[in-house]
Amino acid sequence: MTQLPQTTDKKLGLVIDLDTCVGCQACVISCKGWNTENYGAPLSDMDAYGANPSGTFLNRVHSFEVQPDTGGCAQTVHFPKSCLHCEDAPCVTVCPTGASYKRGEDGIVLVDEDACIGCGLCAWSCPYGARELDQAAGVMKKCTLCIDRIYNENLPEVDRVPSCVRTCPAGARHFGDFADPDSDVSKLVAERGGMDLMPEQGTKPVNKYLPPRPKDTLQEVDASAPILNPVAETPKGFLGWLDKALEAL
Amino acid sequence: MHPAPSVIFFTVFSGLGFGFLTWLGVGIPAPQGWAAFPYFFVAFAMAVGGLIASTFHLGNPKNALKAFSQWRTSWLSREAWMAVLTLSAMGIFAAANIFLNISMPPLGIIGAIMALITVYTTSMMYAQLKTVPRWNHWTTSLLFILLALGGGAILAADSLGTILFIGLAALAQIYVWDAGDKRFAKRGHSIETATGLGDMGKVRMYEAPHSGTNYLLTEMVYVIARKHAIKLRIIAFILAYIAPMLLAIISGRGFDLYILALIVHIVGILAQRWLFFAEAEHVVGLYYDKR
Lengths: 249, 291
Prior knowledge:
The complex is a heterodimer of chains A (249) and B (291).
Chain A: E1 12-17, H1 26-36, E2 45-46, E3 54-55, E4 59-67, E5 75-82, H2 90-93, E6 100-102, E7 109-111, H3 121-125, E8 132-133, E9 140-141, H4 147-150, H5 163-167, E10 173-177, H6 184-192, E11 208-210, H7 225-228, H8 237-248
Parallel strand pairs in A: 1-11
Antiparallel strand pairs in A: 1-10, 2-3, 4-5, 6-7, 8-9
Chain B: H1 5-25, H2 37-55, H3 75-99, H4 105-127, H5 138-155, H6 159-186, H7 191-195, E1 202-207, H8 215-220, H9 229-251, H10 256-278
Helix pairs in contact in B: 1-2, 1-4, 1-5, 1-10, 2-3, 3-4, 4-5, 5-6, 6-9, 9-10
């Protein structure tokens, strides 16, 4: 049903650390790899070897540059973006068929592809661009938070996290339950001031982003100047005599 | 937003069809027997044709019947229900009129109200979207309804209705364009709120997440030909509003000029609806530093 659950028992989601992400795109590739051969229709590519390749991805990394208002050097921020599994998910309520739903037990937002008509209204209603209509299958694709990994008892326990989290070489992605205030993700958010994207849309995203830590500001001073200043302006004693003697030559 | 022909045809023709059904429902005009056939045929052909056009927008139309299931939350589902119920009610009204020569004014009035509610549900598919500030306002629905009534009046060859409702629609249109131009900024959406990085300084994208295009960009960050927007607005305003009103004033209750009025109105509304999509900016464009 496209009515949102009043509350969910768990709030599973991701913390993405914008301070740590190096923009390597490994999460993008591992996500595509896992999700193209597991849950639902494959993530197709169009014109993959031609002039205008495009394809369906559930996770993409944007790269931004932030110019501080106070002057100084601009800072680079790599910015992975996938479904935020919002508490007030507008993509769920707009769906005419019930294909789009939010699970009461863990809060994951999913698409039942057998009921999807590919109208695209859910993608229109998402402020974050988290949903892409697969051009081959004609159905809506989105992040499943790897439901086929996180509950999969055939996998070693260390692998029971979303593919993007498992693969991140920088440790910039964390998975956990936000409904539990003692979970690692909840603590991270509290410690580092985890934030919502586009809060003015009122979607109440579950996924949180940790802002980059403030960087040192490079001052317009020559740090080496005091070291390189001549210690003695005028030589004295033997060196003074030598200096004068050499000048006289 | 991508101005898909299927959705432009859907909204334009189903709007006209249901608008005409509204007028036929209240008995303006009130043809009887077989003389009523062409009137209802045109109204149903437009309404149903528009609805069929909308299915070309679907990626997976084989599940289309499931779209009736979520009327509690989904405007698209409510639209599907209202369209079918209105066509059924007006179908009975039309059949009784054409084949049995029985007039049922109460059913006609109920059908007329339902037809307007159908147009309202269509408009709400767009007006509900917070992600598209230009659409996310009650005047979007107002304009859809006024246009249905105005276009229906042209089809009904009713001069007073044409002048009144096309005139009101023209006023609403001026407001919708003007307020729509400002609403994105007014809502405060920016690349800084989208990324949450505004506290650090001014944000710009220096590298896109993909070198080619994708569904998000082709569907929701459509920026082609916006530079012609002002010219198209003028053309649309003259054809859709000014010309039909002038023709209605000239022709009085005569019929022939209404065919010309209808043609220019449809061309104008097609341009207006193209602009409705092409000028609509989706907030997801902020992640691409585009609008």
